[in-house]
Records
---
Amino acid sequence: MIILGIDPGIGRVGWGIIKDESGKQEAVDYGCFETLPNSNLDERLARIYDFIVLLIKKFNPDVLAIEQLYFAANSKTALIVGQARGVILLAASKSNLPTESYTPLQVKQALTGYGRADKNQIQNMVKSILRLSKKLTQDDSADALAIAITHAFSYKIRKVSEYKLK
């Protein structure tokens, strides 16, 4: 299974493509897409949409896993990030790509077993699980890969549960 993980944002969208095969996860590609802060909001959202469509066409993932927004102290920021998340989900829908959402707590628990893990712990687990030669320096791409890994782990748990219910 090919999983596209997304850490949504308006200024920076972290993305990561992983391959999940026979219980092992491997990084295919990852990075951070940035929009210019001096551009107006609709241009930034259009650029994010176009970039996500391009990623989907290039890597042909089986699913898009995205971070679910949580309550933020700054409601203006939360609304703008929500708009970016919306165009990402729209790009997936228009590409007939299923989506799954995960909260930061779910990601932390899936990777470390601890819901209050810090960024450094998450990055170290991403590096270890994907057998990367060096630590990721961009938080956004590390978060996107962590979201993709969370989906790989969660998908397996759901499949086992479905099998046991039959």
---
Amino acid sequence: MISSREDKDALLGGFVLVVAVLALGLVYGRDVHPSASSGGYTISAAFNHADGIVVGTDVRLSGVVVGKVAETSLTDDFRAVATLRLKAGVDLPTDTAAAIESDGLLGSKYIALKIGGDDAVIKPGGAITYTQDSLTFDGLMDMILSQARSRRGYVGKPLPKIL
């Protein structure tokens, strides 16, 4: 029988620690890295900026997860290449586009596939040729400021000083 308050606190703390370790083990122990044994096939997509894309990032088609990013690498001309492992049966037309999008303003990134209308499909090991890079917060702010300047007639001119 536990006699003192410190012993009860130590026992409760140990229990919480064990539960936390088990929860972390379940979360990180699952297979987040697609492997060759999981079926499906791989294709690649090259981006100028792949901010937020890592191994295990979702690949979505019409909002449904159809694959994961299996690998990321850099080409000789410094483009980011994402190797996508897609589920079997997801046949993409050759004019499919891949765009890096996010869940909201500060949400996690994912690769959204936008289907084309071509009859031919991308073969396993093939590549998506139409890509759209991720939009960074700085890029978004630059876009907003440049549109505001153009509407006010300040393109190429300094903004007026407010006294």
